[in-house]
Amino acid sequence: MEYRQLGATGTTVSSLCFGTWRFGRETNGVIETDRDEAHELLDAYADRGGNFIDTANVYGTPTGKAERYIGEWLEERDREQYVLASKVYFPFDEGAPNGSGLSRTHIRNQIDGTLDRLGTEYLDLYYIHRWDESTPIEETLATLNGLIEDGRVNYIGASTMAAWQLTKALWSSDVNDYEPFTVTQPLTHAAYFEDVREYLDVCADQELAVCPYSPLAGGFLTGKYERADPDDPSAVHAPDGSRGSFDEQFGTYYTSERGWHVLDAIRSVATETNASPAQVALRWLMDQEAFTCIPIIGARTTEQLEENLGAMELSLSDEQRSRIYDARFDADGNLY
Fold first, then answer.
1. Residue 15 — very low, low, confident or very high, per pLDDT cuts 50/70/90?
2. I want to staple 15 with a disulfide (CB 3.0 to 4.6 A). Which of 2, 96, 232, 290 is the partner?
3. Active site residues
4. pLDDT over threshold 80, residue 29
5. Overall average pLDDT of the 252-256 stretch
């Protein structure tokens, strides 16, 4: 296992974080990853030396199930060997007046439930899942700072938001002497990088660790999809059972003209390195020089997990990394 510092913190984590978004999640009446499958995946990750596990209070059907799966698994493990991350923002109890957002009330209500389900006295990392326009950021930060002071949380992080919002939060922490965000979790991957450039520039400048979710573009960058229409980048041939075969938003959300060009470059590098496209796409992110980048990987099977973890054994040349980056642009230097 390859390890690195979690940004400017003193905590060491696996170079690939294991995400549990599918744990207990019901899609079209089917549980994507049940309890036994979840524990098998966690076993495989831990047996390879993995120690960084990402979840959220709303993962699973009903909400909280993913955290519960992890907590039950940890009962047979040494909790101190793992770095646990969870999140707060989205509705946990539908219809509750204070059941969502980043108010003091909601955060304090949710942290206790998260710790209880995980069977732990503290979280290593607590993210705000989104920006809350209804709550002053100072109230949110003061509440999170209190969780750090009373030992229930070690570090705080921020998921997807605008660059100016992240900057405002960091400034507010500085002037109020609150603990700042030290980790971020944006959507970014090899085909979706310039789109969040300003956000990533803030992370680089402030030495924030970046833990991208969906680093393989929902599976698009694994190379298992083929273009179905040369005039429509959203049209794909999707293997049975793949996300693109049942998610009506897949083509709109994850594919683009730019994405197909980047995928072509990733495939060519994969052939040269005797690796899979998924491994190349993950390694490309892990090799970012401006900031510490720790992609969050998900898997339906232990075979998929092993493939993803193989990215740690891969080495890309400067030319190969540049080729993937340059695939975003046309001959005139414009983004596709």
1. very high
2. 2
3. 59
4. yes
5. 84
pLDDT at 331: 87
Q: How far apart are the first and last CA of the chain?
A: 36
The 3 state secondary structure assigned to the chain is CCEEECCCCCCEEECCEEECCCECCEECCEECECHHHHHHHHHHHHHCCCCEEECCCCCCCCCCHHHHHHHHHHCCCCHHHCEEEEEECCCCCCCCCCCCCCCHHHHHHHHHHHHHHHCCCCEEEEEECCCCCCCCHHHHHHHHHHHHHCCCEEEEEEECCCHHHHHHHHHHHHHHCCCCEEEEECECECCECHHHHHHHHHHHHCCCEECCECCCHHHHHHCCCEECCCCCCCCEECCCCCHHHHCCCHHHHHCCHHHHHHHHHHHHHHHHHCCCHHHHHHHHHHCCCCCCECCEECCCCHHHHHHHHHHHHCCCCHHHHHHHHHCCECCCCCEC
pLDDT tens profile 290-330: 999 999 999 999 999 999 999 999 999 999 999 999 999 98
Tokens of 4: 């690195």
φ/ψ of residue 38, rounded to 5: -60, -45
The pLDDT score that the predictor gives to residue 94 is 81
Please name the residues in contact with 30: beta carbons below 8 A apart, sequence gap of 6 or more. Answer: none
What residues contact residue 206 under an 8 Å CB cut-off, 6+ apart? 170, 180
Contact 104, 111 (CB under 8 A): no
Give the total residue count for the chain. Answer: 336
Cα separation, 87 vs 80, in Å, equals 20
Locus of tokens 């170079």:
15
Mean pLDDT taken over the chain = 95
Confidence (pLDDT) at 115 = 98
- Looking at residue 128, its amino acid is I
Residue 173 has pLDDT above 90, yes or no: yes
Domains and CATH numbers, the chain: 3-185 (3.20.20.100)
**What is the pTM (predicted TM-score) of this model?**
0.95
